């Protein structure tokens, strides 16, 4: 298709393919059947709709500032632009800042078309009057595309609905069907202007205080998740973190206000390079194993691949998004992270029914699933709009004491554990495996500072040699199951959690009956 390649010269000249995610000009495979048409909703410097028709081996393109209308009296200006390659018919994404057409572009409509009479696309285009029969998901029936001015490179045309019985002056297709036909995305984001970057922004730390504490999921069972009313995401096993970015400056903290940028400098630096004027991201710092599953133990050893998996966007360019529905926040988050690379990544969605999602989590070795209620707002603190379903039995526990090592050294043998029930701590058993010698020594040193005379837990056993401490440290353990009397069976230490408080350690059940 030498002819088509030649026509795409201007398309190629305007773009840097090493930077933009848009497709190159290599010829795409073409299925049999009627020619394609698509409409992109393009949130560039000025929002517009790009009508593209497959003609002569490429996508002939028109930018329509006001978009199509089902009202035949609304004749919409359509400015002809350069031909695009056929592969552009499936493009959706964000064209990076500073590039030609910078901003989000979503696939607003797609389908096939023919001319009236059929098969005359090339001739009709030359004559300056395309009479189209569209079969899209939103645009259908007959439409006219009529050239009004031949001046120079930018030809002006008018695009309007034909009176063929499918016209409908009262139907605002742009307002009623704003979504992408490919991803369902609704909210789009325009380019970030130099001016927006240069204006005065709050301190990122202040912005974090403004959005307040993160929203937390409630431990839940599979039966409580009504099919279809929730969006499912991978549950990450790491440190919860909020990141505020203000024109290149970053504040990155855990729930307990631990400074994560000190602990994870590579992630903080990658955050500072995101192309946003002001944003607050919510997510989890994780360390991935070779299967891509996040493992809390790996965060302790720096052996895994460290990432920040962002799953929510609370603030964007001066706008507080917490009152906006979940789906809208997600759309904008995808826009902000559209061209992000590791160690920053988008929190993974799971597009399966819950039972399938839980078995996939088990197969992959991830901790479980978080189900988020569709349409829900972001509210700080524990909420029933977010439900967490674990497939692996792990538990956060308060450390309430220890047994010294039997050999008599200055180290602990096992930790005595408790969970919070109501206003009190309840004894939950002891853990003696999963420690290195170094950790055994360190823990003794730490715990000896907080010794108390009597156990501060209910149901504490009478144990010879037990040292009881005030609950300050939080540990995470893996275990096989809860015993009938509320103890952890076969627990193994996974690490200490500096980001959690002992009061947060409530008993969690696996999502499925075991
Ligand atoms: Mn455009």
Plain-language structure description:
The strands form five sheets. Strands 1-2-3-4-9-8-7-6 form an eight-stranded antiparallel β-barrel. A hairpin with a 7-residue loop joins strand 19 (368-373) and strand 20 (381-390). The protein is elongated. The longest helix has 12 residues, at 437-448. It starts with a helix and ends in an 18-residue tail after the last strand. The chain is built from twelve helices and 29 strands. The chain has three domains: 2-176, no CATH class; 194-390, DNA ligase/mRNA capping enzyme (D-amino Acid Aminotransferase, Chain A, domain 1); 394-504, Beta Barrel (OB fold (Dihydrolipoamide Acetyltransferase, E2P)), CATH 2.40.50. It is α+β, with helices and mostly antiparallel strands. The mean pLDDT is 93.
Main sheet makeup: 8 strands, antiparallel, barrel
Annotation, overall tally of beta strands: 29
The name of the CATH topology of the largest domain is D-amino Acid Aminotransferase, Chain A, domain 1
Question: Averaging pLDDT over every residue, what do you get?
Answer: 93
Cα shape: elongated
Q: By helix and strand content, what is the structural category?
A: alpha+beta
State the CATH class of the largest domain. Alpha Beta
How many individual helices? 12
Number of domains: 3
Low-confidence stretches: none
């Amino acid at each position: 298709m030498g002819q088509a390649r030649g026509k795409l010269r201007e398309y190629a000249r305007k773009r840097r393919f090493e930077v933009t995610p848009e497709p190159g000009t290599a010829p795409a495979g073409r299925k049999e059947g009627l020619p394609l048409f698509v409409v992109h909703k393009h949130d560039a410097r000025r929002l517009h709709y790009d009508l593209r028709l497959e003609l002569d081996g490429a996508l002939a393109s028109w930018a329509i500032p006001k978009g199509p209308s089902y009202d035949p009296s609304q004749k919409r200006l359509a400015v002809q632009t350069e031909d695009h390659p056929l592969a552009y018919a499936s493009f959706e994404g964000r064209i990076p800042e500073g590039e030609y057409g910078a901003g989000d572009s979503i696939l607003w409509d797609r389908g096939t078309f023919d001319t009236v009479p059929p098969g005359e696309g090339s001739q009709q285009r030359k004559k300056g009057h395309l009479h189209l029969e569209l079969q899209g998901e939103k645009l259908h029936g007959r439409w006219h595309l009529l050239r009004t001015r031949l001046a120079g490179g930018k030809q002006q045309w008018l695009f309007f609905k034909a009176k063929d019985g499918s016209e409908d002056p009262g139907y605002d297709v742009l307002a009623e069907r704003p979504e992408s036909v490919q991803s369902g995305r609704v909210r789009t984001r325009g380019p970030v202007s130099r001016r927006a970057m240069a204006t005065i922004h709050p301190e990122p730390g202040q912005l974090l205080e403004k959005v307040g504490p993160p929203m937390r999921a409630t431990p839940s069972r599979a039966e409580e998740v009504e099919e279809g009313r929730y969006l499912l995401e991978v549950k990450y096993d790491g440190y919860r973190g909020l990141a505020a970015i203000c024109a290149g400056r970053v504040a990155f903290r855990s729930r307990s206000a631990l400074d994560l940028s000190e602990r994870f400098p590579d992630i903080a630096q990658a955050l500072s390079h995101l192309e946003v004027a002001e944003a607050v991201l919510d997510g989890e710092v994780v360390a991935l194993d070779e299967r891509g599953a996040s493992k809390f133990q790996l965060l302790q050893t720096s052996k895994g691949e460290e990432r920040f998996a962002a799953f929510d966007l609370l603030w964007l360019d001066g706008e507080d998004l917490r009152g906006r529905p979940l789906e809208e926040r997600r759309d904008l988050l995808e826009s902000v992270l559209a061209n992000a690379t590791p160690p920053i990544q988008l929190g993974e969605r799971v597009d399966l029914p819950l039972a399938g999602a839980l078995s996939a989590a088990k197969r992959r070795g991830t901790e479980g699933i978080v189900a988020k209620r569709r349409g829900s707002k972001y509210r700080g603190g524990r909420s029933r709009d977010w439900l967490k379903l674990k497939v692996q039995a792990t538990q956060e526990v308060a450390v309430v004491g220890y047994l010294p090592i039997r050999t008599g050294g200055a180290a602990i043998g096992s930790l005595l554990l408790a969970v919070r029930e109501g206003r009190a701590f309840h004894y939950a058993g002891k853990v003696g495996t999963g420690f290195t010698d170094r950790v055994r020594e360190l823990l003794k040193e730490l715990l000896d500072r907080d010794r108390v005379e009597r156990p501060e837990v209910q149901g504490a056993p009478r144990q010879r040699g037990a040292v009881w401490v005030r609950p300050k440290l939080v540990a995470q353990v893996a275990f096989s199951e809860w015993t009938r009397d509320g103890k952890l069976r076969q627990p193994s230490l996974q690490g200490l959690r500096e980001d959690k408080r002992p009061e947060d350690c409530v008993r969690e059940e696996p999502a499925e009956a075991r």
